[in-house]
Amino acid sequence: MPLIDVAEIPIRDQVREHYAEHARSLSKGNAASCCGSNSSCCTTEQTIPTHALTTLRDNKAIPNEIVQMSLGCGTPLELAELQAGETVLDLGSGGGLDCFFAARLVGETGHVIGVDMTPDMLKLANENKVKVGLQNVEFRHGYLEALPVDDASVDVIISNCVINLSADKDAVFREAYRVLKPTGRVAFSDIVARQALPQGLQQDMEAWSACVSGAIPRDDYSAKMERAGFKNIAVVGEPQPDDLIYSAKFQATK
Ligand SMILES: C[S@@+](CC[C@H](N)C(=O)[O-])C[C@H]1O[C@@H](n2cnc3c(N)ncnc32)[C@H](O)[C@@H]1O
Fold it and tell me: Residue ranges per domain, the chain?
């Protein structure tokens, strides 16, 4: 078998292999072990909860074993203010947790689409869908940089700890803008960097998959969103004194 030079494997392929391992481990019942040893994913940091989401959590609307599969770094749904009947898209849906909460919030007249590039994650999400018994959620295989979603078809886009993993964030924001309805809005939780990370760290693929090396400063992140066309961009989140990277939340409209 030929030896593969990992430096030549595109970032996306390495990230996919990383999350395929996570998915296989989670489907065996192992606890979410976050994204890696340096990871900032899976923080329990929360914003002020909206009433509807708190009620869903308190009523244990989603089984605990699925709640514990979260690989996120925040709670984008706290910002999304979902309404009954809305169509929601989750970028990098993983095991599907945010999709299931969203599906409960938009109700039977609403619809939720989770997109993920990792087949093992899609398999896990579909197994979880059977466990929660929701009909108004579907999972599609695809890339954030080329979404398998129609133009102007989505009311709300959420994403939890995923966009940092893309090497082409401009394409991700362009695609998000394309699929959003003219009245649409976005709510992202993501890892950002206090300042541009050193080149050496950016080439560390293990740290990239662990949501570290792909992080960019929050102002750069907002500027990319603005270049894609987003308006009313609001960011919440500040680093602690020793943080190289930290979790922030972004909201915007089309
Ligand atoms: C850190 S996990 C977060 C999963 C989920 N949002 C959560 O909160 O549990 C990142 C997920 O994004 C997916 N992903 C990463 N980069 C992607 C890309 N460019 N296109 C599609 N999916 C991607 C991975 O397969 C993985 O399932």
Answer: 6-253
CATH numeric code, 6-253: 3.40.50.150
**pLDDT (tens digit per residue) in 161-177:** 999 999 999 999 999 99
Which protein residue has the closest C-alpha to ligand 1 atom 2? Answer: 71
Question: Model-level pTM greater than 0.90?
Answer: yes
Mutation probe of ligand 1 site: the residue of 46, 120, 162 with most atoms within 8 A of C-beta = 162
Strand order of the sheet with strand 137-141? 137-141, 111-116, 87-91, 154-160, 180-193, 245-253, 231-236
Q: Are 99 and 67 in contact (CB under 8 A)?
A: no
Q: Which is the closest atom of ligand 1 to the Cα of 116? A: 22
Read off the amino acid at residue 187: A
Nearest C-alpha neighbor of 152 from the set 254, 63, 47? 254
